[in-house]
Every structure is written in structure tokens, then in C-alpha cells.
Amino acid sequence: MTSVKNFRVDEPATADNLGRGAFVFTDAYSVFDWGKMPDEIPDKGASLCTMGAFNFELLEDSGVPTHYRGVVTEGKERSLDEALAAGNAPTEMAIDLTQVPDLPFADGTYDYDAYHAEAGENFLVPLEIVFRNRVGTGSSLRTRTDPADHGLDYEEWPDEPVDLPDAIVEFSTKYEEQDRYLSREEADRIAGAADIENLEAVAREVNRLVTEQAEHAGFVHQDGKIECLSYEGEIRVADVVGTFDENRFSYEGTQVSKEVIRQYHKRTQPEWVEAVGAAKERATSEGVADWKSLCDRSPEPLEERVIQAARDLYCAGTNAYVGREVFDAPDISAAVETIHNL
Predict the structure, then answer these.
(1) Quick check: 49 and 93 in contact, CB under 8 A?
(2) How do residues 265-283 score in pLDDT, each as one tens digit?
(3) Tally of CB atoms within 10 A around 119
(4) Alpha-helix runs per DSSP H in 178-302
(5) In degrees rounded to 5, what are phi and psi of residue 267?
(6) pLDDT value at position 1?
(7) Quick one: which of 20, 42, 86, 262 could link to 11 by a disulfide (CB 3.0–4.6 Å)?
(8) Which long-range contacts (CB under 8 A, 24 or more apart) does 57-65 make?
(9) What's the rounded Cα separation, in Å, for the pair 340 and 334?
(10) Overall average pLDDT of the 248-271 stretch
(11) Neighbours of 155 (CB within 10 A)
(12) What is the spatial distance between Cα 28 and Cα 41, in angstroms, rounded to a whole number?
């Protein structure tokens, strides 16, 4: 189980064979790696499942291998079109399963050699592959790199967002308590038998396809990530792709993604956000995996008007992205205006 979706195993994966299972999407949300927050956002699970399924089918049609099998409605695996034609916005996605060994942690370090020794040739690559088309004003890339590192003609990062001529691809950890960005050499080591060049190539193709689809709907696709499994040497896209939780989109200059809720918490609960940051820093310095145990504050619930605005944004955004009225929601311009005025 994750903080926003449940995970069901129907047939477990083995060293030689993929298994079968499903993601069951909930209306929970998570920001700042906190896990399940005090509120739920109605229809969020169905929104993410619909958008994720749409993108997986887009990838499959373009020849990109994935772990997607279809959506599940009324106990049957179906294509997204079949489910929506029957009037069902899905909340369950059928997937192929791979092995996910334990990642041992001792003396302040993670043992990836042990992970891969158990993984064999059928495993989830313990990386997140991040792609960026725009460097926002709050992007961590600004604190970790200089513009010249990416071929940009700036002495220092400007105050406004920077659109990139070519996407930047980075690698970060997947199973560590705190995500951290990696050098290419360390990412290659952590990837094990999975080829780092292939992982980057797949990420760039996913980024291209999602960016093109976003443009058709009037969105700007700013950045996102993928996760991958490796099965007998083949890289397949796993987890969920191109949703408002995994990626950042904007519409008419306003965010259409989980970033909206992150920024709202920064404005309205700064003490909690600061406590989270301090706990993470302390955990890093002390070599502690569970940073939440060091945090002395918890988040407060959202106001009802904020929950409704977030619900409408997810649903209106999904309608616009997939090009059909899946949800009863305002049009995307109205939903974005409400968010802009929070």
C-alpha cells in the first residue's frame, strides 16, 4: 500500500515470471513525503486512474512497453474506452507485477547490492527518472546546478521560470526514506542490471508523448517522472504515468497538479512545512531513516472550499487532458480561476 493508492497481488511475481495484480486508487493525497494527509479529495482516485490509463494506452500504441493491463470495472479488465463507454470512471488498474526485494538499511547506508542479489532479472528498478521541460522558480535544480551545466546562456538562474530547449533527465532514489538526486555514476550503480542509457531513452520518449498530449489540451507540461521495471533485460514503464500527482502541468499560467496543494500548505501552514524540512535535515545528519519520527508537528485539515476547488481542478483537468467529459466538473478555465483566487 502507498499513501494514495492500495496495491493488490493476485499472482505474485517470481524470479522467472511476472505476476498479476492491481492498483486501487483512493481519494487520499500526500505532500512533502508526509504520507496520507488528514483530508481526502473526492474523485481524485478516479481522476488519477483515468488519466494514468489514458497515458499507458498512449504509450502502448506508440510502442513503449509498460506493465499496464487495463482498467477494472465490474470485476473485469477492460480498455479505458470500454469502461468510459459504460459510464464507469475507473478506480482500479490491472498491472503486471515484478519483484521488489527489501532494501536493507544499516549504519546510515542502503545496501543496493543486497537488493540486486535477490532481484535477479525480474525487478523494479529502485530509481525515479525525472524529466524537466521547464525550471520553475522553486525547482531544486537551481540549488544543485548552474545554468551553464545545462548549456543555458545565463550566469545565474533568473527570477522567472526558464523553458529548456531540450529536456533535462535526472535520477533520484525510490525506496530511501528521503528522496535524493544522484550522479549518473551512482544512478548507474543503483540501477543494477538495468541499462541507464535505456532508462533515459524511455523517459525521454514518455516525456515527448505526454508533452504532445498536454499541448493538444492547452496545457504546458513542465516536468514529471517515471518508474520502470526490468524483465529479462527489457525496460517497461511501471507505477503510474503522466497524472497530476506524478507530473506538473500548467494552464494559462496556473498550476494544474498536486503542486497547487503543496503551495497552499506553504502559505497557510508554514510552521508545519518548516518542521518537515528540519526533521529531514536532522534525519540526514543523524543517519536516521524515519524522519517523521523527528517531526514535532502534524498538518491541519484543509477548509472545505479548498477541498472542493482541488476536486474540481483534478476532474476538470482530466476531462480536458483525455478529451471527454468523464466527470461532472466546471470547464478547465473556471476550475483554474478558482484555484488562482484561493
Answers:
(1) yes
(2) 999 999 999 999 999 999 9
(3) 22
(4) 184-191, 196-216, 259-268, 270-286
(5) -75, -35
(6) 46
(7) 20
(8) 58/209, 58/210, 58/213, 59/206, 59/209, 59/237, 59/241, 62/205, 62/209, 64/202, 64/205, 64/206, 64/209, 64/237, 65/234, 65/235, 65/236, 65/237
(9) 10
(10) 91
(11) 9
(12) 6
Q: For residue 170, what is its C-alpha cell?
A: 535526472
Q: Which three cell numbers stand for residue 3?
A: 499513501
In tens, the pLDDT along 166-203 reads: 999 999 999 998 889 999 999 999 999 999 999 999 99
| Lookup result for grid cell 521495471 | 229
pLDDT band (50, 70, 90) for residue 259:
confident
- Close Cβ partners of 282 (under 8 Å, ≥ 6 residues apart): 288, 291, 294
- Domains of the chain in start order, with CATH, are 5-268+303-340 (3.30.470.20)
| Gap between the Cα atoms of 201 and 194, Å rounded | 12
Q: What is the pLDDT at residue 171?
A: 98
Cα–Cα distance between 194 and 123 in angstroms, integer?
9
pTM metric for this prediction: 0.92
